[in-house]
Design goal:
8 strands; Rossmann fold; alpha/beta; single chain; binds adenosine monophosphate; globular; 16% strand; three-stranded antiparallel beta sheet
């Protein structure tokens, strides 16, 4: 089972890059934020509880998040592995993932890390618009759709996530950056972290990520 954790602070470009890596590597893209948003849309108890934290820019509690992620990882399409986006966001989540994988003789194989200066994160998040049909992310200035307000791939309207408005973006960065950096250190100490410069074009970041993943795949 090949589990890849795609790390990056909120706004670093994980949601743009993960689907591209997923297509190249043939592994499903699992994004905990997306799982929470779809549970909230469906009105499940888990979704509604998660939404109360998301609306404030806070992290959803670890037990809820870990349970949901492990359930998703047990589905058939993730049998040979997955690309995780937005998980783990705390050291407790990282340790829970390690424990669950170790129980089946596995481990987190690679942790590509999209690095971006903190002052860029705010700009990236507050200019972001998402496709209603499939969640493809755009940026008003850095990665605009061909037709304003319309997804290139789906033709569906774009919307701004309720947690991408400036006040919630500030709250998210304030609450989430410190635990995020602890997770970066956790994987650095484990010797699996592979930093990539996120301050480049979408194509350049994708190719840098694939270079590190393919090089490590050949070594392993
Ligand atoms: P994202 O789509 O990754 O930006 O996630 C949106 C929101 O979902 C975050 O701001 C958190 O409130 C919540 N969330 C997503 N993933 C996690 C996680 N691994 N741990 C805790 N909260 C999460």
């Amino acid at each position: 089972m090949r589990v890849i954790v795609l790390l990056g602070a909120p706004g670093a470009g994980k949601g743009t890059q993960a689907p591209l890596l997923s297509a190249s590597l043939g592994l499903p893209h699992i994004a905990t934020g997306e799982l929470f948003r779809s549970a909230a849309r469906a009105g499940t108890a888990l979704g509604l509880e998660a939404k109360s934290y998301m609306d404030r820019g806070e992290l959803v509690p670890d037990d809820l998040t870990v349970r949901m992620l492990l359930e998703r990882l047990r589905q058939a399409d993730a049998e040979s592995g997955a690309i995780l986006d937005g998980f783990p966001r705390t050291v407790a989540q990282a340790a829970a993932l390690d424990g669950a994988l170790a129980a089946e003789g596995g481990h987190v194989e690679q942790v590509p890390y999209i690095e971006l200066p903190e002052e860029e994160l705010f700009n990236r998040l507050s200019g972001r618009w998402i496709c209603r049909a499939a969640g493809h992310p755009y940026h008003l200035r850095l990665n605009p759709p061909r037709v304003p307000g319309v997804c290139d791939e789906e033709g569906s309207p774009l919307y701004q996530r309720s947690d991408d408005v400036p006040d919630v973006v500030r709250a998210r960065l304030a609450a989430q950056l410190a635990p995020f950096h602890e997770v970066v250190d956790y994987y650095r100490r484990a010797g699996v972290l592979a930093p990539v410069d996120g301050d480049q074009s979408v194509e350049a970041v994708t190719s840098a990520l694939l270079d590190t993943l393919l090089a490590a795949g050949e070594r392993g």
